[in-house]
Amino acid sequence: PSPLTGSLPQALVDDTEDVSLDFGNEEELALRKAKIRHPLATFFHLFFRVSAIIIYLFCDWFSNSFVACFVTILLLLSFDFWSVKNVTGRLLVGLRWWNQIDEDGKSHWVFEAKKVPTIAASTEAEARIFWLGLIICPVIWTVFFFSSLFSLKLKWL
């Protein structure tokens, strides 16, 4: 430092200037790992699935009507299908799909997935919740299938 001004000479100030280095946009990665951006979609993604499983397990305790239990479970799983197809699939992991009919009258299913992660994209926690919910619940239903088959409770099969 100069004794008169108390500051560094101009040449040294330019050499020690902070330089911003971009190592793959760490701010975006931190945002993606930080939190759940769509808490309502995440809640309903799990709510319909878990509710159907809970009702299947405890329906005999609360109701003697097999039809009421069956219809309730079917409605919950239908709501789950609709929400995964139209809301949670798009918000949580960037999936889109629809049916397209060409000029010949043939039906074609079109599937799309996000290609480039963006700031508005889902977080890693949301993607993990989506895929685990999508995989674990059918595994649980498969266990229920075999347990009812081997215990000969065929109406619950």
UniProtKB/TrEMBL annotation:
Swiss-Prot/TrEMBL keywords: Membrane, Transmembrane, Transmembrane helix
Places the protein is found: Membrane
Transmembrane annotation, as ranges: 40-58, 64-82, 129-152
The keyword GTP-binding is assigned to this record: no
Topological relation to the membrane, as annotated: Multi-pass membrane protein
GO cellular component, one term: Golgi membrane
Pfam families with a match to the protein in the record: DUF846 (PF05832)
A single GO BP: protein secretion
InterPro entries the record matches: TVP23-like
Domain of life from the UniProt record: Eukaryota
UniProt keyword Lipoprotein present: no
UniProt family annotation: Belongs to the TVP23 family.
Record's protein name: Golgi apparatus membrane protein TVP23 homolog
Organism of this sequence: Semnornis frantzii
